[in-house]
Amino acid sequence: MSRPRPSLGRWRLPVGAVIALVVAFLIILFGTLIGPEGTIQMTLGRGVQLAETQYINALTVGALYALVALGYTMVYGIIELINFAHGDVWMVGSFASWWVITSLGVSGPITDPVWLVIVLILAFSISMVATGVLGVIIERFAYRPLRNAPRLAPLITAIGVSYILENLIENLISDSIVTIPRPIPNTELNLGLFSIGSVNLFVIIMAVALMAALHLFINRTRLGRAMRSTAADRDAAQLMGVNINQTIAVTFFIGSALAGAAGVVQGLYLGYSQFQIGFYGGLRAFTAAVLGGIGNTTGAAIGGFVIGFLEVTCNVFGYGKWSEAFVFATLVLVLVFRPTGILGQQQGDRA
Amino acid sequence: MKYARVGASLAVLAVVASACSGSTASPAASAAASGAAASGAAGGPAIAVKVGIELPMTGGEAPNGVPTANGVALAISQIQVPGFTITINQQDDALNGKHDPNTGAKNMQTLANDPQVLFVVGPYNSNVAQAEIPVSNAAGLMQCSPANTNPGLTQTWGGVDPKTLRPTNPDKIAYVRTATTDDLQGAAGADIAFNIAKAKTAYVADDTQTYGKGLADVMAADFAKLGGQVVKRDGIPDSTQDFTSYVSSVKGLNPGFVYYGGVTTSGIGLFRAEMANQGLANIPLGGGDGISDGAASVPSSFLQIAGAAGDPNTYSTTAGPHDVASDSTPSATDLATSYKAKFGTEPGAYTAAAYACTQVFLQALKDVGASAGGDLAKLREAIRAYVADPSHTYNTALGTFSFDAAGDTSQKIVSYYTFDPSTKDWKFLQQRDFSKNPLQ
Fold first, then answer.
1. Are strands B393-396 and B399-402 parallel, antiparallel or unpaired?
2. Which of B120, B174, B250, B408 is the most buried (most CB within 10 A)?
């Protein structure tokens, strides 16, 4: 019964990190060559403008994917379940933030900094708690009863939960696009070396801060240790007195709360939501998790940024139609040469 | 073995993905009875027949389908054909809130399988029509689209013969349309950009669908012909969620005009909202009839998504006359008045066209209805043959027109609109009759 599992959040420097750095370096080199002073007229017969802005766009959407990818990877790490409902938890989070923001009477950028901070704190806290609780409920009623069932059962249950969430929002809230007012005024901040949109800066800082907090939580707290031990060997952890049910519930709460934060980010950055965003977006985020090494939180973050870069690169060069093929071809290539993903652990001891 | 499992899960995911993009529709087939009880012409009981409606009705498509379907209902409630009771068999081709070709083809089969359905009004979207034409052609069931504009549905386009859409009976037409085609709507887009917005450069994008790409291709070519320069030609898939990088490209290029071929559900409203967010609201944006979907107060309409109070500096077109000819029956005012009285809202961009399609059917039924002697299959074919015959002319809510041998209308008129901040709705600018006044 005891099987080594990928450990949550363990940073393994060697090959994976080197590959990640090389990929990032190549992308940046490619971008720099085509973008002296941020602008070049024609490359490959197509215009590439505002290279810096495009990097920032890529980083921002990458941060969004990374936040969602963390939830996929945490759940996989601890119970080896691909939680297909996770993308829809993100979607529910975006609707929660829409509800909070419109209920507070916000209809556009807020100039009063105090009120802005209050709105943001309320949006993040309410959405994160709501989705966190939703995640715990899903785990309790849809996955826990199936924890010892054959693997296909919880997988199909996850797909079912995904559809249930979509249908609930579609039929009870809105069956088309809802526009979410953007409370953060969109100004260009000049940081000396480059300028960055205020929303982009906020999103990137928020995402990195949440990831850092998650990293500290997993590695420095009692509950984090319980999560790591449950991920490594559930039965042994139980024998050592770890409350497995509670630990798994906490994992779902945190992963889903991060998806809730991503939902708020969706509204702040893209200004809309729709009941299906969890499907395409969730697929991207799941890919990010696999690309980075499923079960590995640092890998999920890196995977999110890599996919953001790939996607924006395609769009900028006029190959937006190919972005999905490009993203998934990259996934296949990485998995062929490194089946565990960029940062995933070697699985030499497993058949 | 873990990765085998991941692989298996991915395979499952792929199956789910294809299922989502394809075939899980459950259109509510409702036969809405609506007026027109008539006594038998020859003293016998009235024959019950149906007109099919095949339009996208739900989700983001509601602003398109609902006012169009209402046009059909209004026509059959106002015009009686002695000897027949006419009801509606209504199908919805929206899947998860977006029009879906596979669903459309299935709906068309459902309508073909209902022997009482003699004629179909729809669909709304060109890629749905592509999927439906083979079905209606095989069934010999005449369909009339009020809104399809892709030229390839009836004419050789991009080197493809429209007969490939009619494999069963290549020489029998079972599809006509009252909308004019995108080669003219695209020309109108170029006309607006160059002559009305006075732009010298344009960024041209499409949503990679049949309709949007065809429209944007023509607009780009005609804009260059007029002397303008297309600075970038982009394809933005309709599944796109993040438009920021595309809009940043626009910001870098700083074109005089942005033209986006596509429909609102593909995200053009979101693209425009992102343009405003990046400070580009001063660059005019134009589109075709895919964005003429109602005032800013209409939920899910382009104007509503682009900016809650609508978006100044935007242009759209529709593939038909706005200022209808004086010989039209009913007149535009009468149609709008009775529409408002019956449904409580303003008519949509293609309400009159749907009314006209229904008038085509009712005229055919009046003229050949008695010939089949109550045999519904014969009657269906008689109607098809009548409408396919180019010698017939129809006096409708759009004015008088006929269909040519390919099924296209003789009207070559495109209407131009711009946003009016006072009414927060599209405002009619002018219309151009391309048969009398070609672009060059």
1. antiparallel
2. B120
> Closest Cα of chain A to B123: distance in Å?
20
Whether residue B1 lies within 8 A of chain A, CB to CB, comes out as yes
Task: Look at A44-48, A312-316, A343-347 and tell me which has the smallest mean pLDDT.
Answer: A44-48
Strand partners, A43: A46
B62:A176 CB<8 A:
yes
Query: Distance (Å) from the C-alpha of residue B438 to the closest C-alpha of chain A?
Result: 32
Chain B neighbors of A80, CB-CB under 8 A:
2, 5
In this structure, the number of other CB atoms found within 10 A of the CB of residue A17 comes to 16
Instruction: Tell me whether residue A7 is in a domain.
Output: no
Amino acid found at A108: G
**8 Å CB contact between A279 and A170:** no
Inspect the interface and report whether the beta carbons of B239 and A290 lie closer than 8 Å. no
Residues from chain B that touch A351, judged by Cβ atoms under 8 A, are: 1
By C-alpha distance, the chain B residue nearest A167 is B96
pLDDT digits (tens, 9 = 90+) for B401-428: 999 999 999 999 999 999 999 999 999 9
Tally of domains in chain A = 1
**What CA–CA distance (Å, rounded) separates A170 from A163?**
10
Q: Give the residue-averaged pLDDT of B309-321.
A: 90
Contact check, Cβ <8 Å, B245/A58: yes
- Residue ranges of chain B that CATH labels 3.40.50.2300: 24-180+330-409, 182-318+414-433
Quote the pLDDT of residue A16: 56
Would A169 be classed as within a structural domain?
A: yes
Does residue B299 sit at the A interface (CB-CB below 8 Å)? yes
Q: What is the CATH number of the domain that holds A87?
A: 1.10.3470
How many CA atoms within 13 Å lie on the side-chain side of B370? Answer: 10
- In this complex, how many residue pairs, one in chain A and one in chain B, have their CB atoms less than 8 Å apart? 134
Superfamily (CATH) of domain B182-318+414-433: Response regulator (3.40.50.2300)
**Among B residues 81-120, those touching chain A with beta carbons less than 8 Å apart:** 96-97
pLDDT per position as a tens digit, B174-219: 999 999 999 999 999 999 999 999 999 999 999 998 899 999 999 9
Query: Could you tell me if residue A8 is inside a domain?
Result: no
Closest chain A residue by Cα to residue B238: A321
Beta-carbon contacts of A46 under 8 Å, excluding residues fewer than 6 positions away, are: A317, A318, B232
The reply to whether A70 falls in a domain is yes
- B274 at A interface, C-beta within 8 A: yes
Q: Which of B2, B15, B96, B213 to mutate to test the interface with A (most CBs of A within 10 A)?
A: B2
Nearest to B300 by CA among A272, A350, A27: A272
Q: Do B237 and A321 touch (CB under 8 A)?
A: yes
CATH class entry, domain B24-180+330-409: alpha beta
Q: pLDDT at residue B312 above 60?
A: yes
Q: A84 — phi, psi (to 5°)? A: -65, -20
* CB pair distance less than 8 Å for B232 and A60: no
Question: ipTM greater than 0.90, yes or no?
Answer: no
B6 with A280: Cβ contact below 8 A: no
User: Residue A88 sits in which domain range?
Assistant: 14-31+48-337
